[in-house]
C-alpha cells in the first residue's frame, strides 16, 4: 500500500512540520500498484440512477464517489491505516474523528476559490468557522501537472482574521500573498497533508483532455460543544478486518452526524452532454421497462408466477444433468 520510504518516515517529524509550516508533502507515498487497484474499484463512467447501491455522482465537471468506505476496500485501507492513525494520534490532543471523505475526478476545467476547511454547517449551509484542530489528507491518484493543490504558506497562523469570509477572492490573494503561494504538481501516489485552517485551493485550469483524480479526507478534533460535526460514514462491514476501539472511534461509530453527504447532487448538477449520455443508457432500459409493464398488464399475476416457477425448475434440471454428465 504505502511506499516503504513513507512508512519509515518519522511520524514525529511529519507532525512537527504540520505544526510549524502548516503542511507536509511526500512524493509517491502510495505504491503505483495500490493506486491502480484502487481505481479499478471505481467506475467513473457509471453514474447512479435509481440504483440501490452506493456509487458515483456528478456535479458539473467533477465526479464524486463520496461513500468510498462502502465501495472501495483499497480506500478504506488507506484511511484506516496504521500510519495515518499514528499521525493523527501524535497531532491531536483529544478525540479525533474522520469528518468527510471522497474520491473525485476533475476534468475539462475548474476554478476553485481560496478557502479554509474549518467549517460548521446547519444542514447544507455553512454557518461559521470553527477553531477545532483538523487535518486534510489529499492523495493524488493520477499524475498532476495541472489543477495542482495550492497552499498559502503560514496561513494557518493568521487565517482566523478572515473567519467572517466564506472565500477569499483571487484579486485579494494576488495583491497580498502572491509570493507565499505554494503550488504542488506531483506524480500519482503523492500525499499532501495540511492544517484545515490553512488557506488553499486547486489551481484553476482549462484543458478538455485533462483529468485529475484525488482521494481526500478530513480528520478533526471534535469537542463536546460540536457534537454532530461531520458527514455520515457508510462502511462496508466486509472491510472491517482491522476493527479495534481506536478505529471504531476514529470512524465515528455511535457518534452523531448532522451534515449531508457532499456534494448535493441531482439531475440539475449534471452537464447537458452527461445527460445525453445517460439518455443513451436509459433507452434500452426504457424498452425493457415498457415490455415488462405490458406483460404484467395483459397476463394474470398467477400465470406470470407459474411461468417463473417452470423456468426455475427447467434451469435446476439442466444444471443437474450437466453435473451428472461429469
From TrEMBL:
InterPro entries: Phytyl_CoA_dOase-like. It holds the Pfam family PhyH. Keywords: Dioxygenase, Oxidoreductase. One of its GO terms (molecular function) is 2-oxoglutarate-dependent dioxygenase activity. This is Phytanoyl-CoA dioxygenase (PhyH). It comes from Cylindrospermum stagnale PCC 7417.
Amino acid at each position: 500500500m504505502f511506499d516503504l520510504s513513507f512508512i519509515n518516515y518519522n511520524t514525529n517529524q511529519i507532525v512537527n512540520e504540520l505544526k510549524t509550516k502548516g503542511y507536509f508533502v511526500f512524493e509517491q507515498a502510495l505504491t503505483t500498484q495500490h493506486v491502480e487497484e484502487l481505481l479499478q474499484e471505481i467506475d467513473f463512467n457509471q453514474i447512479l440512477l435509481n440504483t440501490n447501491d452506493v456509487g458515483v455522482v456528478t456535479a458539473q465537471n467533477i465526479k464524486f464517489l463520496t461513500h468510498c468506505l462502502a465501495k472501495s476496500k483499497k480506500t478504506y485501507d488507506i484511511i484506516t491505516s496504521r500510519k495515518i492513525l499514528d499521525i493523527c494520534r501524535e497531532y491531536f490532543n483529544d478525540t479525533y474523528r474522520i469528518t468527510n471523505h471522497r474520491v473525485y475526478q476533475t476534468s475539462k476545467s475548474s476554478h476553485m476559490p481560496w478557502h479554509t476547511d474549518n467549517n460548521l454547517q446547519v444542514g447544507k449551509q455553512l454557518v461559521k468557522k470553527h477553531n477545532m484542530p483538523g487535518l486534510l489528507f489529499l492523495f493524488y491518484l493520477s499524475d498532476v501537472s495541472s489543477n495542482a493543490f495550492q497552499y498559502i504558506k503560514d496561513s494557518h497562523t493568521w487565517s482566523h482574521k478572515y473567519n467572517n469570509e466564506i472565500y477569499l477572492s483571487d484579486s485579494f490573494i494576488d495583491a497580498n500573498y502572491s509570493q507565499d503561494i505554494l503550488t504542488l504538481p506531483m506524480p500519482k501516489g503523492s500525499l499532501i497533508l495540511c492544517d484545515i485552517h490553512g488557506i488553499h485551493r486547486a489551481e484553476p485550469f482549462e484543458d478538455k483532455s485533462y483529468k485529475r483524480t484525488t482521494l481526500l479526507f478530513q480528520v478533526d478534533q471534535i469537542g463536546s460543544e460540536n457534537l454532530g460535526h461531520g458527514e455520515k460514514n457508510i462502511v462496508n462491514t466486509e472491510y472491517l478486518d482491522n476493527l479495534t476501539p481506536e478505529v471504531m472511534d476514529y470512524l465515528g461509530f455511535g457518534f452523531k452526524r448532522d451534515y449531508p453527504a457532499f456534494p448535493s447532487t441531482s439531475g440539475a448538477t449534471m452537464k447537458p452532454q452527461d445527460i445525453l449520455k445517460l439518455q443513451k443508457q436509459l433507452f434500452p432500459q426504457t424498452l425493457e421497462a415498457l415490455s415488462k409493464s405490458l406483460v404484467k398488464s395483459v397476463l394474470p399475476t398467477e400465470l406470470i408466477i407459474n411461468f417463473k416457477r417452470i423456468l426455475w425448475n427447467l434451469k435446476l434440471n439442466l444444471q443437474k444433468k450437466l453435473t451428472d454428465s461429469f
